[in-house]
Queue: 2 jobs
Job 1
Amino acid sequence: MEKLLFATFIFSLFGLSSNCQNTFNPGEIWLDSNNVHINAHGGGVLYHQGVYYWVGEHKVAGKAGNKAEVGLRIYSSTNLYNWKNEGVGLAVVNEIGHDIERGAILERPKIIYNKNTKKFVMWFHLELKGKGYEAARTAVAISDAPEGPYTYLRSYRPNAGVWPLNYPDSLKKVTFKKEYKTWPEKIHANTRGRFLHRDFENGQMSRDMTVFVDSDEKAYHITSSEENQTLHISELSDDYTNFTGRYIRVFPGAANEAPSICKKEGVYYMITSGCTGWKPNPARSAKTTDIMGEWESLGNPFLGEEAETSFRSQSTHIINIEGKGEQFIFMGDRWTPENAIDGRYIWLPLEFIDEKPFLNWQNTWSY
Ligand code: DGJ
């Protein structure tokens, strides 16, 4: 914390602010226009009418930093380098028992814009206060303006009472045991859907998540479900604030977290991480031409030194740079759970060779 304050002080002393920044410097302190390190972790970026909006988790200093004391913060920028703090887009509530009561966990927020309703729709992962990561809900809020304030709508475990579109009838009839003793038995049961069955009536778990609006304006919710063992991709309703009940399982039993997605030349690419808490692990990538169809696994997109820790980062979002054709930026977090507010941002150019995404380290770069 002291280091962060000291660096902020030195930067402001010499008048160095992000206002004059024209490069990305992954892993370094990233000052906003008030010379304060940007506080928008696990976030996403929406482009709307000439402005980028970055929403993320506002973390506080110290060990309790992952509990939401403030809410979800929003920044704006016209060039992706220099960011202005727009304030708290969705604030925690000081009411005992409220879903987003102060002290709950609000993670990985993303904003999408619905052209028909003209509403900005924010989705995020919600864990109820005092319950650790047990609730595993997805939550939604809406606003008339990208920077908020957002009105909280609801949270839940989605897709209650419906089977995934790609779940075979033969598996619907299987009776799973409550516990499995050996790893191979566990993995086999997870892959075949033991948690899908367990949560069938009350809704499927939803932890790490993102949302994606396709070129035909249909929106999708992508989440780590089934005790983080299997990804679910669900179609959202026309107003983007609900689930239609159409969803698929992706990479059953492969334990993917931190989904991020983009589309280039008609191909969808996803970058995810493995499941190791706050510790980094080798990322994974995948592609498909049908978002609700079969996904093909492509392996770790990170190259070179520290590729096995994804340059000590975890994916959160992929930005399509406006006006640059299909040019993308990978957005990742370098978590610092011992002092969450000091978490750093790893933004790198996402490169493609023969329909395969790659990430190379750069100390400093620009687009
Ligand atoms: C990894 C996830 O990607 C983070 O968003 C967070 O939920 C941590 N796990 C908690 O351990």
Note: Residues 7-18 have pLDDT under 50 and may be disordered.
Job 2
Amino acid sequence: MCGIIGYIGKQPAGPILMSGLRRLEYRGYDSSGIALVSKGGLKVHKAQGKLAQLEKLLPKRLAGTLGIGHTRWATHGEPSDANAHPHCDETGRIAVIHNGIIENAPQLRARLESDGHTFLSETDTEVLAHLIAASGEEALEQRVREALLAVQGTYGIAVVDRDQPDRLVVARNGSPVILGIGEREMFVASDVSALVRHTRQVVHLDDREIAVLEMGGFRTLTLDDQPTDKQPLTISAGQEQYEKDGFDHYLLKEIHAQPEACERTLRGRIDRQFNTAHLGGLDLPPRELLDIRRIKILGCGSAYYAGMVGANMIETLTRVPCDAEPAAEFRYRNPVIEKDVLYMAVSQSGETFDTLAAAQEVQRKGGRVLGVVNAVGSTIARQCDGGIYVHAGPEVSVASTKTFTCSLLAFALFGLHLGRIRDVSPGEGRRLCDALLALPEQIRQVLDQSDAIQQIAVEHLAHNHSAFYIGRAGCYPIALEGAQKMKEISYVHAEAYPASELKHGPLALVSPETPTVALIPHDDLLEKSLSSVEEIRARRGPVIAVTHAGDTRITERADAVIEVPKTESVLDPVLLSIPLQLLAYHAAVALGRDVDQPRNLAKSVTVE
Ligand code: G6P
């Protein structure tokens, strides 16, 4: 959700900003722009559309060793050249880039307009540029501080001043801002992906914090003008993890990276002595775990669906009631927080505003929140009272794949850990450990079927207007996630239902033009799932079965069959979800879609 990049040092800033924006483009691609400060003054270049539009209009030589860059996901004001960041004050002295929403922008703008200010865009950000320029303070950081004291809302901002070319000022409240420390140069970005090619030493700003970046280093202060002390963190992800590695799309690379990603999630966490899981970051001794009477998982989008699967796994393994809820809905219904309920916040980016706000709401009311987070050191990870890092590695494509799968494993590990403290027997624990360790290889076996799945996607899904996805129990959320993948990257309308609900409404829409992807694991509900298939067949609806091998009743009835290896029933959803990713991917490619950057979406939604 809006990418921010900034640089101050000895090198030409232009190429650094542009390569940073390329890394950050997945955060928003409605427009992009850069501002550079040089002896010649402050120059701004910006354009509506993808980064390629900006590249086209940039002059060959870009002067300046200080600058900021932005890639936008529109909130206030439609995508246009005028609404693209950076935004300046009227004199062209101050340039600002911003991620977030200034809630009192209309009031501030009206006040500034009555003081004679003229605005060129519809954005809330332009108000900031005017406020900073109008400040009576001298130093840029004090101007920014004064302006921010008047502001309500969320922001990650970076500001340059033509008249103070020795500094770059950044601030954060609710939107990520990460400093990168170089050799006599400093960087700033909204995501480490834009920093890794320059440095591994980073500093995460906290809310209501301002940083002044100079060539030789940085200092931080609070909005109340108190200095703060920040310890740099060393990041482990290298630049190579952000390349496509010969794949046509990041999405395909990330789908194929799942075996190794799952190995990382499991590494060092299977305790063979007690056939349990070892989760060092939980910070919850067994005695406290025994007191838990209920578990509530909170997340958004695919993370929420992962939470739904996780809830099913945890409840099955521990017999502790567990459910998942969309983070924003939870937060706004004035939730009752109880002492013996454990809350879990699940997020790939660790920056999703609604998930963070839900976790904060729980903590404000005295509850404990564990994070299930992929991005190490991210805001949600730091906010939580402990947690499990997913370790899927950087995920670039907007649609989540490997993090979804690895989050399921993280929940399974947690379920095993808690289950072995409660009801799960050593024998059952051993079987689960074996099954978890076998998953990476089994995922490889599913990925080997990519060509056959491509054929099914093209033949049965890509050219229909609509599709149904059905599943039961732990596979219902897999159906939801499969339908979500199909919608978001191929734009084929797809709806998921618990298979049992088909006959209560959706069956009215089943026809030869409406295929159904049916998840049919060989478990206790197999016969019931077969009945659903019959109901669809009776209405001449095509069925694509995603199932286990060995039941001819499925092969005889389905129009296409994808078989995945069998694992412990509680883990079946993990393997059944992989073909659905490939179906969506191949349908999207067949339709010529922008797979990695689907329209209207952004990877990390850091606004409400
Ligand atoms: C956005 C993305 C989704 C993602 C969701 C939650 O909506 O487009 O793919 O699942 O945010 O993101 P998180 O980083 O919290 O997992």
Note: The CA atoms of residues 131 and 147 lie 5 Å apart.
